[in-house]
């Protein structure tokens, strides 16, 4: 989802984000209501057909989403083999594989803003308790934006520490990372203000407001 | 060239030119650290550079100009609007480009991030799409419309940050060290972009070459304007001062 959208003009791309998310949710519920392997396998074939034929997504793009979880699927199958049996294991694995692929199809064919808009729509009832749905959407979008950025910053800190002989001390990444995150959060809050994210007047900053600030 | 701060401006706000920024006797501090001391000046020029050593107060000064920082004492007026009480209107007039574009880009993909500012301004979706298309082409980012922002190069990210401000159609843009994190090629590219902007600009920078054609340069030192004049007057003085 962080960088999975693949632009296209297929019917799946053009379908509304709400419809796709609803179908994904229905598929998830449906798959856990059935336990017949042929039904679950059929669902997998349908999802693959929608992704490869309907959305014209390249096979490697879908495989890239399965690759990180295949080891867990294999482990799940082994556990079932030992505890319940091969058929139950196959159903469990096919079920999860189908859902992973279906989620990959949705994220590869839907812009983040469209997905966020659905979340905002779903969050509308929260207005009753003072929550602004647009804020919820912004938080989700920023989370997706900053996860890879924070991973990059953490990698830089690890490199800097490794260069100074601290290769094995992984926990020591945390302190400089937290400091970097706080500094970034401060600048980000300024950027959000500068780009009009908040239409309320700023509060005056008092001389004793604290040490954080630009030179 | 002026070697000390100007006297406090006294003209009423209503008489300011359309694009004037007026800083009246501004002092600001973070905790016990005073970063600006009794700064008073009026900016009417199209291109103003701000230079000074680290910790001299120039970045805080830049943030005063669009209300990101409200002075502890004194007043900042943009076209007669007080940044203390009219921050929203001021920010519509004065865009801000940060040193680190990664902290300014808030949406995962390029086109989505460009649409963020005008959406906040309540611009119609069709007009937003037109503006986004325009800046994507103008800055050579049209091939990256749906690309994740974190995969862009440093120069592309800075161009995206600038484009994200331009789509909001400000009258003046403040840049806080826009080329500090860039290599030579991207520094030149961003410098050309700044040179070609129609908007009035205030640029905080350590890149003295960028200021050659500017109308005015302010040199900050210990939270005060130590020198104020043309680039030909101020830059050599600053270089000599830095040793």
Automatic annotation (TrEMBL), chain A:
This is Energy-coupling factor transporter transmembrane protein EcfT. Residues 195-215 are annotated as: Disordered. Its main location: membrane. It comes from the Bacteria. The keyword Iron-sulfur does not apply. CDD domains: EcfT (cd16914). The keyword Secreted does not apply. One of its GO terms (cellular component) is plasma membrane. The chain crosses the membrane at residues 12-34, 39-57, 69-92, 99-122, 134-151, 171-189. It is found in: Membrane. Keywords: Membrane, Transmembrane, Transmembrane helix. It is a multi-pass membrane protein.
TrEMBL record, chain B:
Residues 21-242 form the ABC transporter domain. SMART domains: AAA. One of its GO terms (molecular function) is ATP hydrolysis activity. PROSITE patterns: ABC_TRANSPORTER_1, ABC_TRANSPORTER_2. Keywords: ATP-binding, Nucleotide-binding, Transport. One of its GO terms (cellular component) is ATP-binding cassette (ABC) transporter complex. It comes from the Bacteria. It holds the Pfam family ABC_tran. Belongs to the ABC transporter superfamily. This is ATP-binding cassette domain-containing protein.
